[in-house]
Amino acid sequence: MGKHNEFGKLGEQIATDYLIEQGYTITYRNYRYLKAEIDIVALKGIDLAVIEVKSRSTILLVTLQKPLRLKRNS
């Protein structure tokens, strides 16, 4: 496995650990459907989080954006 792949896996593990600390249950990792892949699918109560992890090798502080809320039709 190339160094960039190992670095990406490390980023995904850090994200997974953070989500678990925040009370999420990890449902899937590296979920594949046809040609698409989702890095992490997690649940917290009735909230479903679908996460694409982007790992960077430089020191950069980024403010997390508010999660996208989907309307429910009921």
Automatic annotation (TrEMBL):
Pfam families: UPF0102. Belongs to the UPF0102 family. This is YraN family protein. It comes from Sediminicola arcticus.
